Design the sequence.
């Protein structure tokens, strides 16, 4: 006897993508759905990351749902706690919590042709659904470096996304591994506390100044009384990011943009040797563009040293870099980022043949319009292959949700049992994507980044403007997909 719970739609993940999907389904009148969230509260990446200085690197006017502006942001770039509160407030306002199952970790999701549904195994039992929306996000599974002897490190060690608030850093010798988006936020916060801070930098990063400032109460009141003012700010920010996004199509254009980052470095780092270490050898935009006003000043402090090499070996309390440099440390903080090119969910989602997405992809994810994957009927993937843009995640989320909701609406109205991408159309689509990416700074900028997968293929980025992304996902064209109507299934069963 099957005792699993059945729903029309199951959403996996309670970050902004999953919450947005729940809100849009309610708006569309679909109420037979649940949202499975592994944590004890909603929040996604903003629940996981609580390191000192954690904040958004997209201005908050654009880092929010277009249909739920928040006039209460305290800064141009919102801090982590405010973003998490905003997410939870939106969930409460739209009465989403009755649909949420907290503490439900989706261990596997398997499509069954026999049962015509997704079978989702969780730590709390089995669930089934005709449609699934996998909104697990790309930034929650930390990358842990494979370093010889690190498991025998004599002190404390933790990843920035699993910050140990119980450990007092005061007066300690701290080593930070990595100089990415997280490290540039927490290093300036911990630098004044520690006795010695050693930063292991495998690759120098281009850093732009961050136009951050407080948003005083009168400004917040203006946003509340005249929402159009905040909409105008959102439009302005979107335009700036779209200019950058357009520039990424051309390495030559990005070299002009790079001048600002170079000037920022020259004005803040006076020591020529340190400046040399911090000067990247690739074109800006090849890696994620970072912004900070206090990263360079922190690195210039007397208790900070930068080792321009990756960590190679740990012996007791001694850390040894690839170039032979050494330091002693009491605490190691891993600022080594997240699995982006190979989303962790790919190991847990199984197609009709019982193969995981990870097995099929072999390190190079492919999908159709970044939202559906071959041989996984009725499965929608948020932040799927090749939809990343140099803009707000909300641009991607809302574009994909428009597309997915249109698919669900038509499936329900036309009594469609299954929808899946056509393998031939998927192949042609991906050929076009890869051809367009060849001339971008991601591919031609001269760096190794998380945009490039282990096979050297760019399976993450969207090569065109976000206008084109939104246009492509504005309507779900059934003619592009393979369909199976409920009536057809009944006929084949009766035969």
Sequence:
């Amino acid at each position: 006897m099957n005792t699993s719970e059945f729903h029309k739609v199951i959403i996996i993940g309670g970050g902004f993508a999953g919450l947005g999907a729940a809100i849009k389904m309610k708006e569309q009148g679909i109420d037979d759905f649940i949202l499975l969230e592994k944590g004890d509260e909603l929040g996604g990446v903003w629940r996981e990351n609580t390191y000192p200085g954690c904040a958004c690197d997209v201005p908050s006017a654009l880092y929010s749902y277009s249909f739920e502006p928040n006039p209460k942001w305290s800064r141009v770039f919102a801090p982590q706690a405010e973003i998490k509160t905003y997410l939870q407030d939106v969930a409460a306002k739209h009465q989403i919590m009755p649909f949420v199952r907290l503490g439900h970790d989706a261990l596997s999701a398997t499509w069954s042709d026999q049962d015509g549904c997704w079978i989702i195994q969780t730590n709390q039992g089995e669930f089934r659904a005709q449609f699934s929306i996998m909104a697990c996000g790309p930034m929650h599974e930390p990358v842990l470096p494979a370093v010889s002897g690190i498991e025998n490190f004599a002190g404390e060690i933790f990843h920035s996304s699993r910050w140990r608030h119980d450990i007092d850093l005061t007066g300690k010798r701290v080593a930070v591994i990595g100089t990415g988006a997280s490290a540039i936020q927490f290093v300036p916060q911990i630098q004044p506390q520690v006795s010695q801070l050693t930063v292991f930098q495998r690759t120098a990063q281009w850093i732009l100044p961050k136009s951050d400032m407080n948003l005083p109460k009168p400004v917040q009141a203006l946003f509340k009384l005249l929402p159009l003012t905040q909409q105008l700010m959102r439009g302005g920010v979107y335009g700036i990011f779209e200019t950058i996004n357009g520039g990424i199509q051309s390495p030559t254009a990005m070299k002009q943009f790079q001048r600002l980052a170079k000037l920022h470095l020259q004005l803040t780092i006076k020591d020529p040797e340190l400046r040399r270490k911090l000067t990247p050898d690739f074109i800006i935009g090849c890696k994620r563009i970072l912004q900070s006003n206090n990263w360079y000043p922190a690195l210039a402090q007397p208790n900070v040293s930068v080792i321009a090499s990756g960590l190679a070996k740990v012996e007791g309390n001694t850390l040894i870099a690839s170039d032979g440099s050494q330091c002693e440390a009491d605490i190691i903080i891993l600022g080594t980022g997240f699995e982006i090119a190979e989303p962790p969910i790919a190991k847990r989602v199984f197609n009709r043949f019982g193969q995981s997405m990870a097995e099929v992809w072999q390190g190079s994810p492919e999908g159709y319009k970044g939202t559906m994957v071959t041989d996984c009927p009725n499965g929608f993937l948020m932040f799927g292959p090749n939809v990343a843009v140099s803009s707000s995640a909300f641009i991607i989320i809302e574009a994909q949700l428009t597309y997915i909701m249109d698919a669900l609406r038509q499936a329900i109205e036309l009594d469609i049992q299954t929808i899946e991408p056509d393998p031939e159309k998927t192949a042609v689509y991906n050929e076009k994507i890869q051809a367009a990416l060849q001339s971008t700074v991601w591919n031609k900028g001269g760096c190794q980044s998380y945009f490039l997968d282990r096979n050297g293929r760019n399976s993450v980025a969207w090569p065109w403007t976000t206008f084109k992304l939104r246009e492509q996902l504005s309507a779900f064209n059934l003619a592009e997909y393979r369909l199976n109507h409920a009536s057809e299934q009944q006929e084949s069963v009766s035969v």
The longest helix spans residues 227-247. Residues 490-495 have pLDDT under 50 and may be disordered.
